[in-house]
Specification:
With 446 residues, this protein is mainly beta. It has helices at residues 67-70, 86-90, 107-123, 152-162; strands at 7-10, 176-189, 200-214, 219-234, 240-256, 259-277, 281-299, 305-318, 321-322, 333-335, 338-358, 361-376, 380-385, 392-396, 403-415, 419-430, 433-445.
């Protein structure tokens, strides 16, 4: 069964020649799902192992296949009359009433991935220079200058901030740093004609706080906690949803000569709610989990640039759950459990320039240019009508981009008192998709 959200029937096969171009029929042998425990009890119907084409199947005017005639299992009866609405039966499903869609739940994946990416990046923020770096030659990970090469006015400001002479080595003293920051962003993915999927707009926001412990002159570890939420909505009236989440993570970074190494891992718990209109308001609530990690390596090349490479992986786990159908009209759906993954390769370069505003204040300007390639699970779900447990079909969400250009700019203002302020802006530009995000951090080191 296929609609503007990209639904393809499974169970009894639907004639792919009659379906919308670019949307494939999915059978039980080609669909794998992971089922977890949901707070909302729901039984997800099994997908038949084999099926025969339904002779009565025909395409709807907006690309959806007639659910009353096409979604039947071999030897099973057609859906009850309460499911066969006038629009569906006549083959004229109005765009404002995408009754069998269920695509609204697929937006939770992109929101969770975007939120985890923001949290992992905030913990390893290369714009947050020198997390308590007393006596260090350079700031770890993102700041690319050597103290011996600093002009006299920069050297004076650097020495005031770190309370140590620039030209002379100082004894290492462990230091702590506490920080708090807010982050947020918005992402838009356009319609995709090849897969017949609608556009999606996603936003995230959150607040994080953490602590860093400088173990040595070259090594820092820390942890962070965050709370926030996501929201999303599909074009063409296909619904949307929101989620609240808490996140926890640990991170570490070290320097070996000119090489900077860093890693962070995080987990999150999401409380998700979805909403769509299908001749009635259908809602669902479920719990989900996220797991993610990032590895990064950079090499300081001169006084300005730090080329780097990174790999990031994350997973979003959703349980089996069912929609609440207050009218009992039979259009409520049950969703199979699923694990979605995203693995990203990233390479590019960061840039930094220090400016002494006065003997006790150091301003550092930062930038980044990079390219990213994602191997991401397509946002699709196996669903079935609650009134017809012997049937199932697949709904497809907005197709995510594969290749993206990454840009970033930011500034840090550090004072000799130990306080520092960091602000940054990030952008991801891809064909049919754009993401813009920002973050601000306040830090105190002692």
């Amino acid at each position: 069964m296929t609609d503007r959200g990209g639904a393809s029937a499974s169970g009894d096969a639907v004639d792919s020649a009659a379906a919308t171009p670019g949307v494939s029929t999915t059978t039980a042998s080609s669909t794998t799902t992971t089922t977890a425990t949901s707070t909302t009890a729901a039984t997800v119907p099994a997908i038949p192992a084999s099926s025969a084409a339904s002779p009565g199947a025909k395409p709807l005017s907006n690309g959806a296949t007639n659910s009353a005639s096409a979604i039947t299992t071999s030897g099973s009866a057609a859906p009850p009359s309460s499911v066969t609405t006038p629009n569906i039966a006549s083959g004229n499903l109005a765009p404002a009433r995408p009754a069998p869609s269920g695509v609204d739940a697929t937006g939770a994946q992109q929101g969770a991935f975007q939120m985890t990416t923001a949290f992992l990046g905030l913990m390893l923020d290369p714009f947050a220079d020198g997390r308590g770096s007393a006596g260090a030659d350079t700031a770890s990970l993102g700041l690319a200058w050597d103290r011996e090469e600093l002009p006299p006015e920069i050297a004076q400001a650097y020495a005031a901030v770190f309370k140590a002479p620039v030209a002379k080595p100082v004894a290492f003293e462990p230091r702590w740093s506490l920080w708090g920051g807010a982050y947020g962003g918005i992402s838009h993915t356009a319609d995709h004609a090849a897969t017949n999927t609608s556009g999606l707009t996603t936003y995230v926001s959150g607040f994080a706080a953490g602590a860093d412990d400088r173990l040595s002159e070259t090594t820092t570890i820390g942890f962070a906690l965050a709370g926030g939420g996501t929201g999303w909505s599909f074009a063409d009236g296909l619904g949307g949803g929101i989620s609240n989440a808490i996140q926890a993570g640990v991170f570490g970074e070290t320097r070996i000569g000119p090489i900077d190494l860093a890693a962070s891992v995080a987990t999150a718990a999401h409380w998700v709610a979805t909403n769509r209109i299908s001749f009635d308001t259908l809602t669902a609530r479920f719990d989900a989990q996220s797991f993610g990690g990032r590895l990064e390596a950079g090499c300081r090349a001169g006084a300005w640039a730090t080329p780097y490479i990174a790999v990031q992986a994350q997973a979003f786990v959703t349980p089996a759950y069912g929609e609440l159908d207050p009218s009992g009209g039979g259009l409520g759906l049950v969703h199979a459990g699923r694990t979605a993954t995203d693995t990203r390769d990233e390479f590019g370069s960061r840039f930094a320039r220090a400016i002494a505003l006065d003997p006790t204040t150091l301003l550092t300007l930062h930038g980044k240019l990079a390219w990213a390639h994602d191997w991401m699970t397509m946002p699709s779900l196996v669903v079935a009508f609650q009134a017809q447990p012997g049937t199932s079909f697949v709904v497809h969400g907005a197709a995510p981009p594969i290749d993206s250009a990454l840009i970033a700019t930011g500034a840090e203002l550090r004072f000799a008192s130990g306080w520092s302020l960091v602000g940054k802006f990030d952008g991801e530009i891809a064909l049919r998709a754009q993401t813009y995000a920002g973050a601000g951090t306040l830090r105190y080191s002692w």
